[in-house]
Every structure is written in C-alpha cells, then in structure tokens.
Amino acid sequence: MDLGLNEEQEMLKKSAREFLVKECPKKLVRELDESETGLSKDLWKKMAGLGWMGLPFPEKYGGNGGSLLDLTVLLDEMGYNIVPGPFFSSVVLAGLTLLAAGSEKQKETYLSKICSGDMIMTLALTGVEGTYSPASLDTEAKASGKDYVLNGTKMFVPDANVADYLLVVARTKKSSDPEDGVSIFLVDAKNAGLKVTLLKTLARDKLCEVSFNDVKVPAENLVGKLNGGWPVIKSILRKATVCKSAEMVGGAQASLDMAVSYAKERVQFNRPIGAFQAIQHYCANMVTDVDGSRFITYKAAWTESEGLPADMEVSMAKAWTSDAFKRVAVLAHQIFGAIGFTMDHDMHLYFRRAKAGEIVYGDADYHRENVAVQLGL
Amino acid sequence: MDLGLNEEQEMLKKSAREFLVKECPKKLVRELDESETGLSKDLWKKMAGLGWMGLPFPEKYGGNGGSLLDLTVLLDEMGYNIVPGPFFSSVVLAGLTLLAAGSEKQKETYLSKICSGDMIMTLALTGVEGTYSPASLDTEAKASGKDYVLNGTKMFVPDANVADYLLVVARTKKSSDPEDGVSIFLVDAKNAGLKVTLLKTLARDKLCEVSFNDVKVPAENLVGKLNGGWPVIKSILRKATVCKSAEMVGGAQASLDMAVSYAKERVQFNRPIGAFQAIQHYCANMVTDVDGSRFITYKAAWTESEGLPADMEVSMAKAWTSDAFKRVAVLAHQIFGAIGFTMDHDMHLYFRRAKAGEIVYGDADYHRENVAVQLGL
Amino acid sequence: MDFRLSEAENKFRQEVEKFILDEMPHSYVEKDLYWPGGYGAISEFEVRDPEVEKFRHKMGERGWLTMAWPKEYGGGGRSFVEQAIFFDIVSYYGAPGMDVSTLISGPTILRFGSEEMKQEWIPKIVKGDLKFWLAYSEPNAGSDLAAIQTRAVEDGDYLVVNGQKIWSSGAHVSDCGWMVARTDMDAQPYKGTALFIVDNKTPGITIRPIINIDGFHSFNEVFFDNVRVPKRNVVGEMNMGFYYLMVALDFERLVISMGGFRRRFEDLLKYAGETRRNGRPLSQDARIRAKLAELAIEIEIAYVLYYRTAWMMDNNLFPNIEASEIKLVTTILSRKLADVGLEIMGPFGQLWPGSDHAPLKGRFSLGYLDSLSAVIGAGTSEIQRNILAQRGLGLKRK
Amino acid sequence: MDFRLSEAENKFRQEVEKFILDEMPHSYVEKDLYWPGGYGAISEFEVRDPEVEKFRHKMGERGWLTMAWPKEYGGGGRSFVEQAIFFDIVSYYGAPGMDVSTLISGPTILRFGSEEMKQEWIPKIVKGDLKFWLAYSEPNAGSDLAAIQTRAVEDGDYLVVNGQKIWSSGAHVSDCGWMVARTDMDAQPYKGTALFIVDNKTPGITIRPIINIDGFHSFNEVFFDNVRVPKRNVVGEMNMGFYYLMVALDFERLVISMGGFRRRFEDLLKYAGETRRNGRPLSQDARIRAKLAELAIEIEIAYVLYYRTAWMMDNNLFPNIEASEIKLVTTILSRKLADVGLEIMGPFGQLWPGSDHAPLKGRFSLGYLDSLSAVIGAGTSEIQRNILAQRGLGLKRK
Questions:
Q1: A330: how many CB neighbours lie within 10 A of its CB?
Q2: Which of B126, B268, B330 shows the shortest C-beta gap to D144?
Q3: Residues of D with CB below 8 A from C285's CB?
Q4: pLDDT recorded at residue D27
Q5: Which of C303, C312, D116, D164 has the fewest CB atoms within 10 Å distance of its CB?
Q6: Is C246 helix (H, G, I), strand (E, B) or coil?
Q7: Which residues from chain C sit within 8 angstroms of residue B298, using beta carbons?
C-alpha cells in the first residue's frame, strides 16, 4: 500500500496552487462567471504553457504522458481555486474520448491541438431529457453518401459556446439494446446547421443547448467504430465522474479553509466565533467530510487510472462527494453569515459549483443506485 | 380554531401524571419489563378504578363516554410515564374494534368487561410476514356447521399471553380483492387449539406468536359482517396508529425533560454540561421535535376523533413522530453518556419504546408512502 | 380542540383571497421570484412600485395591514389567528402585505411611544403610507446586536447620529429607518441605547447598495455622518431602546410565509406528476415519492406550530419557544424544499429564471441560493437554538 | 499511490484468516454478539474463557498481539498497515485479539517505563499472559478526565490508593488495572497524576458489577480502600501520569473493528436479497437499495480513513485528525447500520437474540442498543469534534 501522492504529484499540486492564486484571482473568476464565454484567453495560454492540457496524453501527441490519477491531482487544485473555462470539456470529455477511440490520424490532427491549447473541444452527449441513459439518446445520424447527417438537440453541453469542435454522440442504428447503435462524430462548431444557445444556470458555468439541423459530417469524422460508441462513452463517463469528484474535493477543501480562517478572525460576543462550540463542531464535521471525500475519490481515481474495474469505486466517490461538498458549502455559508450572501464574497462561487457538480454525471441518488447494482442487489 | 385542551382533558392529563408518578414508578416498569406477563394486577385495578379502560366507550357499557381525542390525551401521559401492561391492546385494539363492529350483545357481554378491567382482550392481526397488508393475511377460518375453524399463525400479537379473549382477523373467502373476504372472530384464549408463545423483543413488550390449530369458534362469535371485516380493521389501524403516536409523543417529552434536568445537574469541566453549546443545541432540536410531534399528532387525533377523513393526518403524525422520538431518544442518551447505558437508568426504557413504537402500525417509510398516495402521487 | 377555521374565519379567508385575485398588480406577479423563508429575492425591497403602493393602500383601507391592532388606533381588532390566515393567503399568492412599519414599528410605538408619537405616526402606518427599513445590524454587530457602535449624541432637541448600518433591506426604497444607536458607550446596551425613527431625507445619510448572491439589490450599507434626528422621533425613554427592541422581536413571530411554502410545494408536486423521465412520471419513483411526502409532512409541522402560536397569542399565552421553533423548522424547510426540488428536476433544476427550459420559472434554482439567507436573517439558527435552550428550557449560559 | 495490498501483505492476510478459521474456539463463536463500534457486548469483558486464553497465547506466539512493536521487545516488527489488516480480519470473524495490555499499557511502558518495568511486564504482555483493565473514568470524571479524585499517596515504597473508578470494562475478569490517580490534588493534573499498574488481588479492592442495557455484565465500579501499590509499578516519573495517558490515547487510533462492519453489512445484504415481503425480495425496494448503498459507501469511507491512518503511522506522519475522524465516522456508522438493519427487517428486527424468528441471530436488535455506547465510549463524539476543531484546525477554546 502507498496512500500518498508521489513526488511529481506533490510538485504538480504545489505549483498549481501557487500558479492559480496568482493567475486566477477570484476577481477574474467573478468576471468570467458573468461573461458570455467564461474563457480567459490569457489564462488559457498560460495553463497550456504549463502543459496542463496535455497532462494525461501521450508525449507523441504533445502531451505529458501523465496518468488519470495525475489529472485528478490537478483537478483537485483547479477545484480548490476555481478555474473557469473549458479545461474539463476539452481535456477530460473530448481529449480522453479521442485518446480512447480516435484513429491515429484523428489523434495527430486534433489531440495534439488539444494538448497545445490551440483547439477547444467538448462532448455533446445528453439529449432533451438530460439523462445519461443510452435509451434517451435522441440525436440521430444518418448515412448519406460519404457523409452523415445529424439531427436533434443536445442539452447541457458544456462550453459549446467557445468550442472549435464538438464530439457528438448520436444514434446511428435503432436496436432493442439501447447500448448498441451509438456512434461518436467530430463536428466542426462552425457548421452552418449547428445552433448553440448559452443556458443561464445557477453556477454560471457555460452549459449550452446545441441543436443540429441537417448537420453534414464527413465519414472520416466518425470517432471509433460505427454503432460501437457506447462502451467508449461509458468509460469516459466514469472518468469524467471521478475527475468531477476530484474537482469537488478541492472545492470542499477551499470552503473549509475559508470558513475556518474566517471563524478565527470574526469576533462576536467578545470572542472569535470559532471559539463557539457550535461553530467548532460544524468545522469538525466539515473536515471529516472533506477528508472522507478526498480519500474515497483518490481511491476511485487510482482504481480507474490503473485500468481496474472501478464502477463501484467511482459511484461511491461521486455519491459521497456530491452530498459532502454540499454539506460543507452549506456549513461554510452558515459560518460566514450575511457577508457570505453577497455577490462580492467568494463563498457563493463554491456553493454554486457544489450544486453543479452534484448534478452532472449523475447525482448522489443515481450513483447510490449504481452502487446497489454493483453490490449485486 | 381552538388549539388547546379543554378543561376535562387538562384535568385528565394532570391527574394521570400524578397517579402514574405515584403508582407506576420506574422500579415497577423495570420489573414488569423483565417479567413474563408485563402486567401488574394491582396497577391494572387502580387504573380501572379511575375509569381509564372505559374512557372512550359509551356509558351504557360502563364507559365514560369520552372521545378518541380524550384517549390520546391519556395515552400521551401513559407514554410519558411508561405504563406496562395490556391497556393499549385491550382498550384501543380490541375495545374500539368491538365498539365499531360488535353486535349489541357482544358489546354488552364483552365491552362492559373491558371497561371494568375484568377482561383483557387483544387483536391478532398480522400473519407470518408481519405486514399490515390484507393480502398477507394467512390465517384462515372455515365454516363447519355452526362453527368456524381457524388455522394459521399470527405474529407480534401484543399481550396475548395475558389476554382472556383474542379478536382474530382471518380470511373467510379468497377473492381477487384482498380487502374482500376478511372476518373478525372473538376467540377464547383458553381454547385448546391455541398456542401462545411469548417473543423476546428489544422493548421487552409482550408480543406473542399465536398459532391456531383447528380452533373452533362458534358462529355467534363473528364480530361484524362475514367477509366485511377489513374496513373495520382499516379504521382501527388508523386509530391505533394515532394512539401509538400520542404515546410516543409522551415518551419523547419525558426523554427531553429527563435530559434537560440532567444537563442542568451534571458538572464537567467546572460547569453544568447544559452550559455547553453543543448540549444546548441538542436540547433545542429535541424540544422542536417534541412540540412538532405533539401538535401534528393532536391534529391527527382530533381529525380522526371528529370522524373526518384522516388518512393523511394520521400517516403524517406517525411518520414524523416515529423519526422524531428516535432522534430525541438518541440525543437524550448522548446527553446522559455512560450512565444512560446502564440497566438501572431510566433512559433506555424510552429508547427501547421509541423503536417499538416506530415499528408497529407501519414505520416512517410506510407512512410516508401513504402520504404520497394521499397527495395523489 | 378544533382545528377547523370558524365560519367567520373561513369567510375572512375567502374575502382576502378574492381581494388578492382581483386586485393584485400584474406587474408584481410578473416579477415575483420570492422564495419562502429567504430574504434575498423580495421585490418590494428592490424597487418602489406605484401599483404596489396602491394595492397596499387598499389593504390599509380594509384595516388589514394592522389587523391585530386595537380598533382605537385604526387597527382591525382582529385575532392573531385571522392575521395568520391573512399571511397564509397573502404569501400563497406572493402578494405584498405588511412590512417593518406595520409589524415592528407600529406595535412598538403603540406599546412604548408617547401619545404625541402615536398621533404623528400611527395613522400613516395604518394606511400603508410609510415604508420603514430596519437599521439594526452593523458590520461588527450581527448575531451580537449588543455590540453596535453607531452613536447618537444629544444636542438640544436633536440626536446627532454617526456610524454605519448594514444589511438594511430596502433602505433605498423606504421612507424612514427604524433605528437603534448607542447613547452611552460606557453603559450596558440595555441602558445606553436609543430606538428612533430617522427620515431617509435627512442630510448626512448615504445609502450604498449591496448586491446579494441572487443578483438582487435589496441590501444596503447606510452611513450616518452627523445626521440630526429630532428627539420627538425617539421611542419611549431615551436610553431604553435596546429593551424595546428585544420586546419587539416578539412581534415578528408570525411573519412566516406559510402560504409560500404551500404554493411552491404544490408547484413541485404538479411538476413531478407531469414530467416523465426514463419512460415514467417522476412521481412514480419511490425515492421521489418519499421525498415529497417528507416535505408535505414538514410543511404540516410548520403549519401546526404556526397556528398554535397564533392561537396562543390570542389566548394571552406567551409563545416564545414556539416562535424559535417555527423559525428553525421553516428555515430548514426553505433549504430542503429548494434542494429536493432541484434533485427532482435533475439537470433542468439548475436553469436560472429567464431560461427557456427552466421548470417553474427557475424559482427553485434561485430559491436554492436564496435559502442560504433564511437560516441567517432575523436571528441565525444558532441564535434560535440558544434562545430555545436558554430562554425556553432554562439552561444556563455558563 | 497504490491501494492494493502488497504480495507480502496479502500473504499475511491469508495467514491470519487461515489461523482464525482453524483455531478460533467454538465456544467463543457461539456466544459472540459483539456489535461493531459498541462497548457493551464484548464477551471477553464478561467472562474469562480458558479456550480464548489458549487462542490468545497462540496469537502471542506468532507475535501478533504486539505485531507493531520492535522485535527487541518481542514484538512482530510489522507495519501498522499489517496491524490494520490483522484487525480487519480478526474483527470480521469476531475473534478475540489485542487488549488493553497490548494496545495501551505495553506501548506506554515501552516508551516511558524504566528498564526494570519493561523486564517485568513486557514479556508477559507479548505472550498474552495478562489481561488489563482500564482504570481511568470516575463518577465525576467522564469526558473531563482531568477531574479525577482518586488519590495515590506515597508511603515508603508504596502508593496508598483511595477512591473509585467506574465503567471499568472487564475489571472482574482481568489481572491488573492500568490506572491513573492524583498524587497532588493542588497541582494541575499534568503535574500531579501518577500512571501505574495495580494487581487485582491487592487487598482493599472491591469490584461491583454494572449491568449495561444490553443485559451484559462488562462494566464495573471499582472501589479502592487503602490499596497499597508498589512504587515500581508506576510508569516513568511519579507525577507525569496524565501526560503519558494523553500520549497513549494516540496508540488506540487503529482499534476499530472495520471487519465487524464489513461482516454485519454482508449479513444484511444477504438478508435483503433472500427475504421476500409483499411478493418481492426486499432488495428490490428502491428505498432499501438506496439505504444499503449508503451503508456500503460509509463503510468504504471508514476503510479509506483506516488504511490512510495506518499508512501515515508507518510513514511517521502524525494522524491525529484522522483518528478523530475515524471515530466519528465509525460510531455514526455503528448506529446507522443497526438502525437501517432494523428498518429493513420490519417487525422481525425487534426480536432479541435467542428468539426463534430473530433474523441474523438478533444481532441487529442487540446492536441497536449497543450502538448507543459507540458514540460515548473512548471519548464522546462531542469530545472528538472538540479535538478536531481545536487540535486539528487550530480553533481557540475561548
């Protein structure tokens, strides 16, 4: 057993913390939250310069050859500081999909640009019902000569408003088994039949409605096997789930740290409020939640990273972390009191993200049911 | 609106409190818990002398002509002090069933003896599955000449070990509608084919397994209509549920009172533990739970007592009170610490009953589902 | 016991309902995003709407804004149960109604103010002519209200006020502040604090907006720079303000938007019945059923505590435990209703008001944020638990 | 990172498992009703079973009772991760294992005791010859251990002890008490308390049983009436006992019956799969599935904290936050496992051990009571939260 980070991971963590404090202050986070794009090109370039976009990809595509576990270490820190922008979409959702299923040529052409930060990509998965079940996939792709023609609407596509390309998951065959007949297509965001509408959300993350109206896609843009896309998506969803959990762990840790330091400063009734037992016990519950979330998430990340069966671990991590981050963020707000309820304060930035993180890739109920299935129930 | 007890109810409450403190000390409760019968004949007679057994029954049968609401006021106090014995079985379960469905002759013969305390009766309802669904009724009664012959096993029959008579709910007809074909029989506990086995339980209440082996019952002992027993049972279950809730409210109140007074006395770290904010907040949560339970239960009791549709109110009361009493009892134990974990202490008497009360007549999950049905879901 | 409304109460209830349905300004209904229990999305605290003013005047004419006051002062002479019924209906429809002037200032003036003061202020309050804001909290005096630092120094017929208030809801759209300030920094607050009315137009007052996390401007910081307040605006004795303030806290007991909870829950119930996911209505999911049932039960708990409190007040019983209990129960409910709502709505729940696909106008999404204020405003949950333990159960502080 | 056991660790795990399956005394298995996390139903604290003694000796021979001690003192020289693996297996099978002597007294003597003391006690502890009981708590010193009143007065080569201990698990079936008493009532406890071993056979000791709510006699009150304890039994310096005791609390960190949780959860899972109600297996009920999944996740949380702590100890990191976290997590789990179990079992859940129809030997019914002790024993949950806040997060006490 080795339950600590290795030296490179510790260094990555430390340097990410320092970089983000400096380069991604909360003022910028707030501006990007309120902006249409959510993207700071300057910050994006600097992150690319640090090799973050290439972290989990092989060196031959310009990546750093890191593991999924390395990526979660970085995401933990990105969650700690909050980094708006399409990193998760481009690297986790699109990049890992291309890596898993793309042809050599696709990887050379596109993955290398993702690694360099020159291309932003995202994954358009959930249909109008907003669920992750393959049965609910309602965008269709029909073969037409050398092309495929896509029709349908995708909901909650992250960062489609700034993406250069979209990986679109579409049904290419009707089948009694909903997992059969699903394919993935690389679609140029500039395609005329594609309409992207930014959705206004609680977390002010850039989720989009994307409609496809006779969108023509050349056959060479099929990613992976025709009709064989679902196993790829399943695996990417698992990876995205654990990556999101890691990001949430970071957010929970930051919420705790902020609340504890405020509890030490804020004086009421002639003593720091952190001297009140109620506040102390809130903090004790928070740190317990944060540590539990972190270790269960790292176990899931390690398991998935090693290529071991990880369905149980990943669902456990997401179910627990979704609830735990929410509990932590609520208690942090309780400690901050009225000041935390203002737009100028940082706490709500985390509180919003706790909810967004809980919702995406299945909430706690969804993953508990997955755990029940894995338990053989 | 009138949300207070009337004068008679206040007097009943006060006199019950005083009587029980004197006549039913915890020493006696403990002895009865550990005994085989759970019955103090002396206490039973005194209670009968006060007219408690006849409280909700018409004067012509020797009762006091009180309402169901009056009965819940008394049960609240009986729960507060804890009164072992077959009161609930004889008065609530059997007595109210006889009152609702018995013939005039049955009422004159049996109900009057229940009122005087000279006869103890109970209701044998749940079958081997232990549920309250009519589909699970597995005791059968077959007509045979002028008699009925009963076969089957009843589980969790309260106080059958001291009952003179049992009201047995049996299936007299198979039907696609499980609510159809259910009948109620008055069975002499001395009947040779009847075997009563006391079950050992967490709450040390006297629940029994009762098996019927060709038990002959004369036709005149049919209570209510042949095959028409289920609506009666449904109404009795609703009444029993609200009566049990009232008893639990009393238990929760007692747990709170005991814990608060201990918190004022017990000194650690040079101050009463009740001065610690953690303990104060526990107590605050407890009193909120107790008051919420009391008012929602009284609303249900009043609604049922008035003969208004009360399914929603009763299920709300039982669902809430089951959880609330449990929360209160757990916090009380936390305040008592190690001393509350000893057999000589009183607190566990309540803690055990919180669980027994939660289980009987449907737990919180069961009643929440009922509420969902009532909400039209 | 009788949990039914009396015939008169029922008639009154119908009267209020009809009035609101007939008269409620459409402009108000349109923009209403109020979340029950919360303090951040109350549109009356944002802008002053002439239509709403008119509506309040009509309520005032009926004596409804001050219905539990004695008739001699223009009150409605109605019971607290009737007031509770009124609030229930008003908040069910999200209508504007009582405010600081009618709920806090008026009753305090009636109890502690001079006859002169009553003559000057009460009639206007009764009619709904005035909007007051609450000038209690300061940057270093939140839960610890006794720590206020704003000073009021006597100067002839005036008090000269210097200092700062914060979290002042609707100060920028109100007429007057209902204010406490220290008259003697060395005395205990109970003996060195004045409670008075300050006109917003007095020179030296600067109001700065605070935008809350809902994105609303309802809170303000208010700065006082040598603000001269006539002494006749002081309530009762000069230095007894803190005492009056503490007593006045009891007047706020029944200010709970029970109807708001009921309404939003009905919305959610309807949504769960009508929305299909994975091939069946959400309302068929056992876990969702259980969650909705839990909410229904908790709303009922709040209602029984609510009417019980009103009934106690009508019967001269002192419901101080119940008041804190309701606050705890309803603020927890405020959060839970939003949280469960969002869980049920899945990814659609996060859509913000104004989004095309947002279920139920995005109210739950906003409410999810707004409910953070419920457990903080008007005495945090921790303060409520302290009160319950200390005032209610007699536990010592040390 | 690597969450897998190494080959050696795996081998050791198998070795322990085989040993237990082969050697565990049948008499012990029969009567075992231990509930994970609880303190009230540990049969070793009730009676002294010669079969169990033999079994412990065999463990002692393998060095397993003191496996993380240095080899020079007869320890196993194994890692804390290995000790954690050992505990996991031992508690999974409900086998007897380490006790106060091996977990608390031994390590304290090794760290603070004189060479003479080590020579006298360590070899016997290693072999499993001795059973110690913990003489810490007193009637007025529970959470507030510094308030102990039992006195130890020096008299030549002896300490003369007078006073009373309470909650002393298994005192009546042990050989020696591991005891603290005040040597100087006027000094701070850190400077006026001795830590020493007292032989149960010393005249003046009276042991009275306390029956706990499970119906077990495991607790005792122990009275000391001029009990003469040789000074050579005092650990380290005469007045430093309280300090040693606080340090020793850290030695208990890994005493968690993780395997017990795992085992009881597996039982429950099986029960839910095999038991039908209303025409279908309980495991098909969506709410029951959710509850079982929750338990599985919380057990996993406890496991990651457990191994993380062991790993930290092996790497000379100081896991004091984690220790309190595990205590909180597992004691909450102790209650929840019993509560959910009983909910799932419906009315059958309440049947007590010995009842014919009791599911899973009635363990959950008993466990439901016993879990009340989990959140109290060895530092209440409140004390754990204080520690986390103050020691772990640096919040001030005043």
A1: 19
A2: B268
A3: 286
A4: 82
A5: D116
A6: helix
A7: 1, 304
Neighbours of A105 (CB within 10 A): 9
Cβ–Cβ of C382/B271 closer than 8 Å? no
Picking from C213, C368, C380, the nearest residue to A355 by CB comes out as C368
Which pair of structure tokens corresponds to residue D147? 């308030």
In b/e form, how buried is each residue of D109-124, taking b as 16+ CB within 10 angstroms? bbebbeeebeeebbeb
User: Which residues of D are less than 8 Å from B268 in CB distance?
Assistant: 140, 142-144, 147
Q: How far is the alpha carbon of C179 from chain B, nearest alpha carbon, in Å?
A: 30
CA D37/CA D333 separation, integer angstroms:
8
- Give how far D391 is from chain A: nearest CA, Å: 10
Q: pTM to 2 decimals?
A: 0.97
Judge whether C287 is closer than 8 Å to chain B, CB to CB.
no
Q: Are B126 and B98 in contact (CB under 8 A)?
A: no
Q: Which pairs count as long-range contacts for A7-15, CB under 8 Å and 24+ apart, including other chains?
A: A8/A70, A9/A69, A9/A70, A9/A73, A12/A70, A12/A73, A12/A74, A12/A77, A13/A73, A13/A74, A13/A76, A13/A77, A15/A50
A353, C213 in Cβ contact below 8 A? no
pLDDT for the residue numbered C222: 98
Distance from CA of A261 to the nearest CA of B (A): 21
Size of interface A-B (CB pairs under 8 A): 8
**What burial class does residue B226 get, using C-beta atoms within 10 Å of its C-beta: 0-12 exposed, 13-18 middle, 19+ buried?**
middle
Cβ of C289 and B298 within 8 Å? no
Q: Which chains touch C (3 or more CB pairs under 8 A)?
A: A, B, D
- Helix (H) or strand (E) segment spanning residue C366: helix C363-374
Regions of chain A where pLDDT drops below 70: none
pLDDT of C250 higher than 80: no
The residue among D21, A278, A181 whose CA lies nearest residue C386 is: A278
Q: Which residue of D211, D342, D353 is in closest CB contact with B355?
A: D342
Nearest CA in chain D to B361: D347
A129 chain-C contacts, CB cut-off 8 A: 277-278
Nearest-by-Cβ selection for C3 from B6, B303, B376: B303
Cα separation, D269 vs D282, in Å, equals 10
Nearest-neighbour CA in chain D from A137: distance (Å) = 25
Identity at A89, one-letter amino acid code: S
Residue showing tokens 């013969």: B109
**Partner B contacted by C307 (CB < 8 A):** yes
- pLDDT of residue C70 exceeding 90, the answer is no
Using CA atoms, how far apart are residues D252 and D249, in angstroms rounded to an integer? Answer: 6
Given a cut of 50, the residues of chain D with pLDDT beneath it are: none
Report chain B residues whose CB lies below 8 A from the CB of D369. 202, 348, 351-352
Q: Chain C partners of B369 at a C-beta cutoff of 8 Å? A: 286, 289-290, 293
**Per-residue pLDDT reduced to its tens digit, B75-108:** 999 999 999 999 999 999 999 999 999 999 999 9
Please report residues of C whose CB lies closer than 8 A to that of B303: 3
